[in-house]
Hints:
Elements: H1 10-19, E1 45-54, H2 58-64, H3 67-72, E2 76-83, H4 90-99, H5 103-106, H6 134-139, E3 149-153, H7 156-162, E4 168-171, H8 174-188, E5 193-198, H9 200-208, H10 215-236, E6 245-255, H11 267-270, E7 271-277, E8 284-285, E9 344-345, E10 348-349, E11 357-361, E12 366-370
Parallel strand pairs: 1-5, 1-6, 2-8, 3-4, 3-5
Antiparallel strand pairs: 2-7, 6-7, 9-10, 11-12
Amino acid sequence: MKIKLVYSLLTVFIIAAVASTSCKKYADPPPYFEDDLDTTSGTTSRRVLLIGIDGAVSSEIKAIAPPTITAMLSHSKYQWDAVTDEVSTDAASWKTLVSGVSYSRHKILDSTFIYSPPAGDDTHGGAPAFFPSMFSYILSSASKNNMRTSFISSWPTLVERVVPEVLDPVITTGDQGVKDSAITRIKNNNPEFMVLHFNSPSIAGKAGGFTQANTGYKDAITKIDGYIGEIMTALKARPEYNKNEEWLVIVTNTHGGIDESYGGTTPDETTGFMLHFNERFGSVEFTKEGSFISPLLTGNQGSAIKAILSDPNAYNPGSAPTTIELKVRGSKAAGSYPPFFTKSRNNLVVEVYLLVHLVLDSYAGQITAAGIWK
């Protein structure tokens, strides 16, 4: 089964990893099982290292094939065509990454990390809801509120305004400072959850282009890869590494870039790569190739067009477990109704019950999507 990863679920994945005290075996497609640590003694400690890289264009990383990241793939679940977010500014990307909420909800756009209504909007209309970072949820956990957390970055505003709940906030000078601070803590402290922020590829891309043809950009990618190699060496040197400490290492870009800019919505800016590394993982690439089908729904009322798949065999579940994801995007037309199914009574929108109804016909071996009015 091929799966399309959802970038905003990364936060949920991290919290689940650090909060769990025992685990089942990891199932892979094609089916096989990987060895787990012995958790019978109750001493196994699950830990997370998350490395975020600004400006790392997924296709360029894949083409450059930096040695450390390439070597990690043999023990990783990874993807080259994930989606970061609909907006690729630094602030929007990092707010999405640490909160698990997309820009469409948090509305943080610029580097102040403060909401500003778009030009022409009602300035008294109210700000969007506040969405805390994953560290807030760790602090509110009944069993993990004393977790040793670190966030290391050369961007003071990011550290101070987005992750104020972190136990060990570290502001450094440059990416080398991030690497050095991380290694110091890995060697001398006892970290349980660390987040590292590297941004030199973004700087190099803006200076000469987000492409390996730009020597400065390629060198920046290669240097960060070397930093990751040094960090992994220090991690693996911990006496309990892969024994009583089970580490999940996540490497991901926060956004890409195009030409000499970023912040927009083009695929080069919003396509993400991510890898989830663990010594006991087998290598599996998640891809949307062959499984991404996008039916178009148009019209309204009597002229509405239902979702009709071009491939009659698409989403055939057979006899195996199947995961299906639906993502809906719509544009509001003229009038007062939202872009999906509603019903009005006395000129008031009453309720939206069900957007899409999936009917699984095991005999026909297909799934039909139809809009349901309630």
